[in-house]
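Action item from last week, closing it out:
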Amino acid sequence: MARAGGNAVDACLASAIMAWVAEPFFGSIGGTGFVSVRTPEGAVEVHDGNSIMPFTAPSEAGQGLKRVFFPDYGDGIYTRIGGGSVGVPGILAAVRSAWERHGRIEWGALFEDAIAAARNGLPLSKTSAYYLTVTWHQVWSQYEGAAALFGPDNEPLVEGDLLIQSELGEALELIADQGPSAFYSGALAQEIAESVGADGGFMSVDDLDRYEAVVREPIATEAWGWRISSNPPPAVGGAVLVHMLALLRSAELSEPLQRLTAIVGAQRTAMGYRRERYQDPTGIAAALDEAITGAAPSLQSPSTTHSSAADTDGHVCSVTESNGYGAGLVVHGMLLNNTLGEEELNPLGMHGMPPGSRCHSNMTPTIAQGDGRTVGLGSPGADRIVGAIAQTLIRLAVDGDSLHDAVAAPRAHVDVRPQGETLCFEPGLPGDEAGFIPRPYEDIHMYFGAVQAASLSDDGTVDACHDPRRSGGHVLI
């Protein structure tokens, strides 16, 4: 995109579109996402493409949902799949919105490489192969279209196998030629609605047609001399990040055990507050104001992908997108999300949200500005997203690390488990001394997220890096 005359926004959006081909389990055109853009003038805006509860009401709560358990994903997780789990997808609308306001290249050019990759095939990445293996029997093998695509010999594809998605290439070409209307109101919309209905769901063509991306001002805070702008309510990820940073601003971070204790304490408080106060997405903003007002030095109390880009003109772009765990449905090569079935994102209960309301989201695409540089960053990792970003920001703002060192630095995450609060941590952290049930990892691990970052310095220098914890890449042009 850059060599063809595009800017960082074009490059980042094209990368997000390519993820629909290269990482369909984590970022699908049938999924959800957010685009954060910093303009050359220094303004930051967030294009909200989060999925929504259909305007069409289900006949009963739980309609079209099937509960499944993944024993080998993380430390075991329940989710719900099927037609009733599909929220109205918004990532395509967000991509279009950001391109209309900031893109430089033609709309169709954003799709050219993705269309070619879908038709010619790409080797299945290590991360995608792992996810496919641990969810194959519960999800993908249960649906004829998914099974034919990801397991043509009745066994899931493995790392390096060629994944050819010719139908997806057709769908992307249609959208490249006709714009998002092909997906939201045209022939593709009809196919999606029919497939969802045939599997017990209730999302209609009218629900798709009524979807609109929303451009929002970011939620912002100051920490360690940096200004951090992130995803605002009704999404929950940015609120948790801002709460964590408010708690960490005055914490002692110079000594390793003190730093780890502060990070874990801030995470426990912010995540606990989320569980108690962020049940209804419409009330997150007010609840966060109360949390920040009361934030003091006392620290008591699902799958995604990301792309970032920066250019010398001053654009910085950060895109986080998700397909949830996947509903199992594949329509014209497009995987559909299971947002309405993700138990951690539906605290009001299955189908408990008002019609047309935005769903909960952990996604936290962030723009951070300080020490003469602007950094776009974000991460996959469900409820580990915020911790991954916060720990990377500490390395950038407090330690003055390079992008590469900050992203690769060891991380920790405290998890509430049946046996008690468990501190998961990577090598190099004193997790055994922190007073929790220790769960050390022998090496860096994708459990702790996968931060992707790009930066622009005041002197015009650009940089980028990807997280070694997960399949990914970066390039300077």
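Closing note: The chain has a mean pLDDT of 90.
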